[in-house]
Write a structure and sequence with these properties.
The protein has 109 residues and is mainly α. The protein has 2 domains: 1-33; 34-108. The protein has helices at residues 3-32, 36-108. It is rod-shaped, with a radius of gyration of 45 Å. The model has no long low-confidence stretch (mean pLDDT 93). The chain crosses the membrane at residues 6-28. Residues 42-108 form a coiled coil. Keywords: Coiled coil, Membrane, Transmembrane, Transmembrane helix.
Length: 109
């Protein structure tokens, strides 16, 4: 085999390898390409995910509103409790003063 035949055979082998690689790539691309039904399903799933995220955000904001309302109610209840406790303390002091006054008046008789 002379030099020209060797170059020609090598070129043919390299071209065949290139053509075989290109064909294999085309077949793999063709087989792994998503179908229209698959794309429709992916679009549907993406829409469902988007809807679920919106529902989650709405639920979180509603939860935060409820939490703020309950915190406000709790603060009001604590203020009322504190006022009632102060009133009760003042009433106890007044009752003790009245008892002392009554005992003094009864003791004078």
């Amino acid at each position: 085999m002379n030099r020209t035949e060797f170059i020609t055979v090598t070129a043919i082998i390299l071209f065949a390898a290139f053509a075989l690689g290109w064909f294999a790539s085309w077949v793999v691309h063709r087989l792994t390409r998503p179908t229209r039904a698959g794309m429709t399903e992916l679009d549907h799933m993406a829409q469902q995910l988007h809807d679920a995220e919106e529902a989650r955000d709405a639920a979180i904001s509603q939860l935060e509103e409820r939490e703020a309302d309950l915190a406000s109610r709790l603060a009001g209840a604590e203020a009322e409790l504190q006022a009632a406790m102060e009133g009760l303390q003042e009433s106890r002091v007044e009752v003790e003063e009245l008892r002392d006054y009554i005992e003094r008046k009864l003791a004078r008789r």
